[in-house]
Design goal:
This protein is an alpha+beta fold. About 50% of the residues lie in helices and about 20% in strands. It has ten helices and eleven strands. The two termini are about 30 Å apart. The relative contact order is 0.10.
């Protein structure tokens, strides 16, 4: 257990204590404001809302203060009972436990003080596109898309296919899916980027290994409250789905293309037989794209931390290589190689990379804590 919560550096504790004192002072101020008979309904409501937001941190601070008081008491007892071995041993054992609990509470509080991405709790849209490598890239895009589908099922998340555009060999030129579950976007957001594959394509006669690439984008799901789509900003065209790409080739104009006029962004969906369902899916993807565009703009203006430390998550960055002849998968950001490529492609071992990336993000945030 001792290794579970390594002691925090003195500097970190000092900065954290300053933040905790600020939270305590703010809480006292808000409490006083609420108790003022002269407080307006707006002031009361705003103060109450902020207090509720601080509630979980305040609860941890109270526990930490109580534990620190207990540690002071046990330290004094240890000094006072040097002659009584039994009492001394008992106090020493309790002190060790109390110090461990203090470290646990400090870690929890530090975590609660780190900047949070408001989108982490949201569902997400997965987009996979074949890049360089022709048909082989399309076949690998299909493999990657199915890898996330299997991973989602293993996690108990809901995975809905939004749209698939097939290639001549039944690979995927483009595919998108909606993934729903607890904190899905926060878990998968670092999967965005270029996934590179090295293998002998089915189309290769001489057995040479080819390198192809697939781009993956993970977008937080949004709704029209987040992006406020106005009808006059949208151009909606319908057309007949069919040929390579239509999962259900048909003779009606059920495929839908929505263009967001201010940005020129276009989303086409032809997966469903019903025009109404395709339109609903297209709006869902468009909302996610516009929401992410706004988040990226805010992120760029606020902080360079994530783009420097973990990578921007943009699709031009090579993040992972899947080497089939050697049976290994390497994540280039955290330098981790997993030697069972089959497990990864079955959605089994993705957590090895996902957990390492999330831990790295947390470590980087802690490292920059003092300058925030």
């Amino acid at each position: 257990m001792a290794d579970e919560y390594p002691p925090l550096s003195t500097d970190l504790i000092k900065i954290m204590e300053q933040r905790l004192s600020a939270i305590e002072h703010r809480s006292n101020y808000l409490q006083d404001l609420i108790n003022q008979p002269t407080a307006t309904a707006t002031e009361y409501s705003t103060a109450n809302k902020e207090l509720r937001r601080l509630e979980s941190s305040l609860d941890l601070i109270k526990q930490l203060r109580a534990k620190q008081k207990e540690i002071d008491g046990l330290s004094s007892l240890l000094n006072d009972c040097q002659e009584d071995k039994d009492m001394h041993d008992m106090a020493a054992g309790e002190l060790m436990e109390a110090v461990e609990e203090e470290k646990r509470l400090q870690h929890l509080l530090l975590k609660s003080l780190l900047p949070k991405d408001d989108a982490d709790d949201r569902d997400c849209i997965l987009e996979v596109r074949a890049g360089t490598g022709g048909e082989e890239a399309s076949l690998f895009a299909m493999d990657i898309f199915k890898m996330y589908e299997k991973h989602s099922q293993k996690k108990g998340w809901k995975f809905d296919i939004v749209d698939i555009m097939e290639s001549d060999l039944k690979g995927y030129k483009e595919a998108s899916g909606a993934i729903s579950g607890s904190g899905v976007y926060g878990k998968l957001k670092y999967e965005s980027g270029i996934h590179r594959v090295q293998r002998v394509p089915v189309t290769e006669k001489s057995g040479r290994v080819h390198t192809s690439a697939v781009s993956v984008a993970i977008l937080p799901q949004a709704d029209q409250v987040d992006v406020q789509l106005r009808n006059e900003d949208l151009r909606i065209d319908t057309y007949r789905s069919g040929g390579s790409g239509g999962q259900h080739a048909n003779t009606t104009n059920s495929a839908v293309r929505i263009t967001h006029i201010p940005t020129g962004m276009t989303v086409s969906i032809q997966d469903e037989r019903s025009q109404h369902m395709n339109k609903a899916k297209a709006l869902k993807v468009l909302c996610a794209k516009l929401y992410e565009m706004e988040r990226s703009r805010l992120h760029t203006s606020r902080s360079k931390l994530r783009s420097e430390q973990i990578g921007s998550g943009d699709r031009s960055e090579r993040i992972r290589t899947y080497n089939f002849p050697q049976g290994r998968v390497t994540d280039h950001r955290v330098g981790i190689t997993h030697h069972s490529i089959d497990d990864v492609m079955q959605g089994e071992s993705l957590d090895i990379f996902i957990d390492a990336l999330l831990l790295r993000q947390e470590m980087d945030a802690i490292a920059s804590f003092g300058s925030m």
